[in-house]
Amino acid sequence: MSNSGMNMRGKIVFYEEKNFQGRSYECMSDCSDMTSNLSRCHSCKVESGCFMVYDRSNYMGNQSFMRRGEYSDYQSMMGMRDCIKSCRMIPMHRGQYRMKIYERENYGGQSYELMDDCDNIMERYRMNDCMSCQVMDGHWLMYEQPSFRGQMMYVRPGEYRSFKDMGMSGQKFMSMKRIVDSC
């Protein structure tokens, strides 16, 4: 087992209707298109692990972070406007967290390296915007508003040259949080 990461099995059960009614589908890994398993999804139970759920296929659109618990009407609880269409399991991470944020696309402008949560990049770094990043270690949530509020985006180790190219056009990210819970 490496120090940089360790996968933890997660399990989420999706239901067609609110309050865990209708047909169900169990998922223990990433699923890029829920519509092949259920025609719609309005509630779910996270039995173990953590997941990101998306209101569009292929991990696009509005995102919500879900940890162990029951979501009987996730639309009203999470503020999503549509059904869950895809999900991604978030592996448990052990070790350090490192992410470099950039003011402009393609790693331009001011840059700062984060190793812990940042509740407001404007206050901490005098940075007006974050339009690209490189995640070296760990899994992170980026939020459009300070204090970890508003729309969010999940990022994992990799390069993110342009959030606009990822379907996040016009989106500003003002706070970043490590996913540190064992979920």
UniProtKB/TrEMBL annotation:
Chain ranges of the Beta/gamma crystallin 'Greek key' domain: 10-48, 49-91, 138-180
Domain of life (superkingdom): Eukaryota
InterPro entries according to UniProt: Beta/Gamma-Crystallin, Beta/gamma_crystallin, G_crystallin-like
Keywords (A to Z) from UniProt: Eye lens protein, Repeat
One matching Pfam family: Crystall
GO MF term set: structural constituent of eye lens
Residue stretches spanning the membrane: none
SMART domains reported in the protein's UniProt record: XTALbg
Record family assignment: Belongs to the beta/gamma-crystallin family.
Function as written in the Swiss-Prot or TrEMBL entry: Crystallins are the dominant structural components of the vertebrate eye lens.
Protein name in the entry: Beta/gamma crystallin 'Greek key' domain-containing protein
Organism: Pagothenia borchgrevinki
Highest classification ranks of the organism: Eukaryota, Metazoa, Chordata, Craniata, Vertebrata
